[in-house]
Structure formats: C-alpha cells, structure tokens
Amino acid sequence: AYSVLETFAEDLKRENFTFADNMSVLLTHLSEVIRNNLPQLLSYKDMKALLERLDPEYRKLADEICTSHISYPGLQAVLKLLLAERVSIRNLHLIIEAIAEIAPHVRRTEQIVEHVRIRMAQQICGDLSEGGTLKVLRLGNRWDLAFHQSLKRDAKGEVREFDIDPRQLEEFGQDATKAIRKHLEAGERFVLVTAPDARPYVRMIIERLFTTLPVLS
Question: What's the farthest any 2 CA atoms get from each other in the chain?
Fold first, then answer.
C-alpha cells in the first residue's frame, strides 16, 4: 500500500489500482484490530447473552452439557478458541450440538474444539474460499509423519502430549516460512493443510510466524 494525494485517484483507477480514502483505510485497520482481539472481547456475560438468544431446546441442551460435562467457563473457552482462529460463532446451534456429541467422551478443551471444527467444516471452508475455490498449501508427507510421531498418546489412544525435537521444530519453521512467503508474495489467498491429529499443534507453531494464516486438516 502507498500513500498518494487524492488528486491522483482517477489516474490510479484507470490503471486498475485500488484507491482507498483515509476513512476507508482507518475503518479497515480498526476492523482488523477488532477481529484479532475478539477472543478477549467475548466476556462471560456476552456468552450468556448469546445463549439466551438460542431456541428453547438449544438453551436446554446448553444447560445440560454445561451442568454435566463442560461448565459454562469451559464453553466460553471453546468459543474463544474458535474466535482466535477467526471462525465465526454465528451458528451457535451447530456449535452446541457438536459440543454435546463430544463432551461426554473427552476432557481437554482443544479436543472439543477440533470436533466442533469438523462439524463446522462447510462453514469454515466457505468463509475462506473465493468464488467457491479454496487454495491450499500442504505440509507434505515428511512433516505430517514428523508431527504424528511427536504426539504422545495414553492407553485409550488420546493425545496427551506434543513432544518434538527443538532442532526439528526450528527446521520446520524455516521450511514453512519459505513456502508460505513464496505464496504470500504472489498475492495468493490460501490455507495451510495438515493431518487432523496434528492440526492444533501445527497451528500453535504457525500463528507465531503468520498470525492470521488459517490451518485446516
């Protein structure tokens, strides 16, 4: 983006440049600031207000799962993690359904979020696509295998720990940065794709390098 005098606006438009006035630029940046901080803006009171707007049967379902399995602060944590990855929580009915399905079987918030994301796959992909097309960048089999081998599981097969060699982690960061910057410099909008069980951990690493890059599985 470049700052130019408004007197050049028409000339730039004729050359197929996009011209934005000062107010539009300010609103765009303000919108980004709000989107980046939505998890912090979702208070417990706000969450309860959202639940009150649900249809009666879904309010009852939310009460049941929060009483028996997850708690209201736990539900708030799930919503915050979704917002942290810029996933809209407008379809709260579907989110409550998904939580009701998985909450009796797992304890960790991250596991609940992953199941919710699976149920919301159509919405997530639709929000990220352009003209019905979603461009993806794959990690590749080598890194899929490396992350899979770094997941420590309990007797039930559930992931309990992510343990990867620091040198391997540094190498991954370098490889990912090189590949991602190549696509960013080309002006492409895309998502990073990895294996389902490794997705939350890949996202944890990638967000430190590219804050807003979506990571899907």
Answer: 69
User: Do residues 79 and 94 lie in contact, with contact meaning Cβ atoms separated by under 8 Å?
Assistant: no
The amino acid that residue 23 corresponds to is: M
Question: Mean pLDDT, to the nearest integer, of 152-175?
Answer: 86
- Note the CATH number of domain 42-123: 1.10.8.540
Dist CA 2 CA 46 (whole Å): 39
* Its pTM surpasses 0.85: no
Tens of pLDDT along 8-32?
A: 566 666 666 665 666 565 555 555 5
Domain positions in the chain: 6-37, 42-123, 136-209
Q: How far is CA 5 from CA 25, 26, 64, 192, 212, in A?
A: 14, 16, 59, 38, 31
Report strand pairing: 159-162 vs 151-153: antiparallel
Is the C-alpha dihedral spanning 63, 67, 70, 74 positive or negative?
positive
The DSSP H or E segment spanning 140 is none
Alpha-carbon gap, residue 128 to 191, rounded angstroms: 8
**pLDDT, tens digit, 9 for 90 and up, residues 85-130:** 999 999 999 999 999 999 999 888 999 999 999 999 999 999 998 8
DSSP string, 98-144: HHHHHTTT---HHHHHHHHHHHTHHHHHHHH-BTTB--EEE--HHHH
